[in-house]
Amino acid sequence: MLATTYLHDDNLRNDMLNWYCMNTVQFSIIRYTYMREFAMLVPKFSAADRLNRRNMRCHNTSHVGYFRRMHYQESLNLYSPLNWYYSLAIFKDGVPRNKVINKAEWNKMANSQMVGYDFLLDIDAGSLKDVAQAYQDAKKILAFFLSFNLPVEVDFSGRGFHIKMAYDLFVYHGFSLIQGEDNTIYDFYIKIAKLMTEKFSEMIDLGIYDFRRLCKVPGSLATYDNGVYVCYQFNSVEEFMDFNIDNYKFENYWAKFRPVKLRHPWINDNYTKDASKFIAWIEDAYDKENYKDEVYDVADNS
User: Fold this and answer.
1) pTM of the model
2) Residue 251 CB-density burial (10 A; 0-12 exposed, 13-18 middle, 19+ buried)
């Protein structure tokens, strides 16, 4: 099993375990995992795949405490701290308990039980040295989305940035949630991602648009080969503009005891829920043969 030297620090691992005891952290987590799939996966540097857990139900703070004790503590002892994820998909009754249905059967029927699927744009730095470029790209893309006055969430993922919009914005526009059908929400989301890639950033992950996709939970800890970072949801544009990666390294964040703020996730307080203009713009720009030259220029919004 691969392990990194810094994870052999007993005090650090104890602090990481205690992080998930904090009420603000627990409530932040269940705000994202309620009625969704919850998963815990080993970092990329670890070969301990047997620790991976998917298709779990995490609807309250008792569940968070259980997963902390039963799975996270074990992974810390093996120097492979599990990263915490939630699904972009929202399910009618959440992921069923094991006693109700076995996971193999659930995997076959999960798509049919979906009632929503949020938009995620993943600006993935890949390595620590590329975070600065990802941040510059994220600022440009955020300016584009805010120009439509839509509610947008922006998170630091530990190694990049996530820009999100809730499925509620798109629910009444005729997109299907069933993968493989015509005019799916996944097809529309990848149009957005491709347009943003062409105009703003080559760091956008285009391979994430399927109904089983997971995303790191804001408020959780992301472990990498060179350190642990707090996955953080920015509470304002100003806070995002003041981003400094050192502030989100776990040792620094923990020392300051900065709370994980509980509020609505949108980075902009004044917004509209009418996405018609945005959808029309995306469809029109994508259909044009010369859309690369005609898409929104962030300089127009500066």
Assistant:
1) 0.92
2) middle
Calpha distance 291→230 (Å, rounded): 37
Q: Write down all domains in the chain, each with its CATH number in brackets.
A: 5-301 (3.90.920.10)
Q: What is the mean pLDDT of each run of 10 residues along the chain (302 residues)?
A: 78 96 92 96 94 95 96 96 98 84 86 97 94 97 94 96 96 95 96 95 95 96 95 93 95 77 77 93 82 44 36
